[in-house]
Specification:
It holds the Pfam family MazE_antitoxin. By secondary structure, the chain is of the alpha+beta class. The protein contains two helices and two strands. It has a domain of about 60 residues. About 25% of the residues lie in helices and about 20% in strands.
């Protein structure tokens, strides 16, 4: 997968979820990356997030001064809704959809 063009990047301000304005960030756990680059999401986090075997997650990154500074995981089913929401005004302007 190639790098996205600047115009294709969804900024943090454009990303929306159904958590609402009063939601907060929480450090759920500290993960260790093994020699193969793998990590384990704790069972309680998977259960609360509704993540089951076979689910697909999108890895989202934020970059600052040429280095990735933040990472987030999101179920792809939620990501597609956000992308549609961001692209919908553009598609409506062109008459496509």
């Amino acid at each position: 997968m190639g790098k996205l063009k600047k115009s294709e990047i969804i900024t943090a301000n454009e990303m929306r979820c159904s958590c609402g304005q009063k939601s907060s960030c929480t450090v759920e756990s500290i993960l260790t990356i093994d020699d193969r680059g793998q990590m384990v999401l704790p069972k309680d986090v998977r259960e609360r997030a509704g993540i089951k075997p076979g689910d697909k997650l999108a890895l989202i990154s934020w970059e600052k001064e040429g280095s990735i500074c933040c990472l987030a995981l999101m179920k792809t089913e939620n990501l597609s809704g956000m992308v549609k929401e961001v692209l919908s005004p553009i598609l409506n302007d062109t008459g496509a959809e």
